[in-house]
Structure formats: C-alpha cells, structure tokens
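Final report, closing paragraph on structural work. Over the funding period we assembled a curated collection of sequence-structure pairs, and we close with a single example.
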Amino acid sequence: MCAALLVAGLSPLAAASITYTVGGTLGPILSGSDPLNANGQSGVLTAIAGTTLAPTSKTKTSATYTLPVGAVTVVIGGTTYNTSGTSTLKYSFPAAGPDTMVFTAKITVNGLKGTVVGTASLAKGSFTGTVTKHPQKFKPTPQTLTAATTAGGPGSQVKYTAGPFGTTVLGLAGTATN
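Its predicted structure, as stored:
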C-alpha cells in the first residue's frame, strides 16, 4: 500500500518532464587533440528538463533553460563522466536553417574540471514558439543527426574541454529522441 502511494505520488513528477537522448558515433575530429580518444567512440548525452521551467534568457528565436544538478548525463566510449553543478539547454529555431538544441554541462575527467557542449541539429520546424515559455518535445522523433564537418559549422557536434588539455570538437552522427 505504501509503495502504491509512493508511486502514485511520483507519477506527476515523471509526467512533468521530458527526457532528451542524443547519441551516436563521435567523429571526425574537427579541432583539437582529443585527449579522451573519443573519435570513433559512441557518445550519449541524456538530459531531463521539467516542463514547467521558465527560461533564464530568451529571444524571438531562442530560449535558454537552466537544468538542475544531475539532470544531464554524459557517456563517451562507455565511460560515464559525472556532471557537476547546473547545466543549460538552449533551443534555437531561426527563420532560416535547422532548429538546434545545445546542452552545456560541467564534467570531471580524472579529477580535472571540464565542460561538454553537445549540439543536436534538428529538422526545421521541430519546435514551436512556445518553447520560449517552457521546454517542449521536438517533432518528429526520433530524428537522424548528421555530423558537422567544421567546428562551429552546421550539423551535430560535441565540444569538450578536459583541464589543461585544451578544447576538442568532434562531429556526431546518430539520433535524437524525446
């Protein structure tokens, strides 16, 4: 009976969030030295966003949300990199070009502090303007991610820093779901 009440009490919390999963094969190396040897490895970024969050900043074509500690998980080549502190999720839906989700999380790599920035380039029209009020699911799902061919250019990519080893940017070919 207590377990049933506990599950019933948690159900609204589960219904009030969206789980995004962005994953696939990392590579090619677009810039940097890749000290984690992530090129050619699998990479998965999972983020949970509450549907009642308010944006921390927004424009007519984007909205950025702060996600609580533990809302983002990063796995590269089977190794889970713990996130620390809050993370951010930025939705962009420009007048021209693809819609994007950009996840930014602080990580720890062998005791060194670093950052992971994952960009999922989605189909145009994946989001509506209401994403500037609260997080929303993208449509359709799943979507195929095409790897970027230049750092900071169009396509999906992962950028990471690992302490004093500098910044590496890799393409990401795979899928995004919610």
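The chain has one domain: 16-177. The longest strand covers residues 17-31. We thank the funder for supporting this effort.
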